[in-house]
Amino acid sequence: MKTHMITKSSCLGMGLLLLTACTTTKVLDEWRNTDVTGTRFGHLAVVALFKQDQTRRMFEDEFAWQISNQGQMVTRSYNLVPSLNESTTGRIATIAKAVGTDGVLVIRMVNSKQPAKTADDNSSPVPMNLSGFLQHSWKDNYDPPDQVTNAVMNVESRLFDVKNEKLVWSLATESKNQFGLKWEINLLAKRVLDKLKDATRTK
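The structure corresponding to this sequence follows.
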């Protein structure tokens, strides 16, 4: 019995390692605001800009769970603004500040047919202002494919400082929906948050 349990556990562990190793999520581009290097964010709000409520909750729940496991406070935006639309997205920045968050992490999917942008000159993605970005992005956002195998998902993640609404960091990633959307979000969140941790580490 004990041997069977050990074997089962070993197989499960190997399966998880294999799954992680096989992820196709890759970093396309990263930008950092060098003026705010070392800024600490102890309480993040997670905003997933998706039109489908279920998809939004899946992204925000997974990112929030992994952020909390890193020891940070986290607030899901759907608890602040239950329904996202063109008019309510602009309120997120004000509400996030009111509840005490110091950073807002925005996740959205961009058109997979658009070429990846580079930041060789270290210029910032636009627009910089958090409220403006949320309203602008809502008009041009995409929901990820749910059941389509190997569908490409280009995801953009941006961290804003709530106090001044300035962009602190951005990351562009590309994934293939190989294991189902739930698993892909899990692997995506791990990749994004690992990069974010490095970018915001106090020097």
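The chain has one domain: 24-199.
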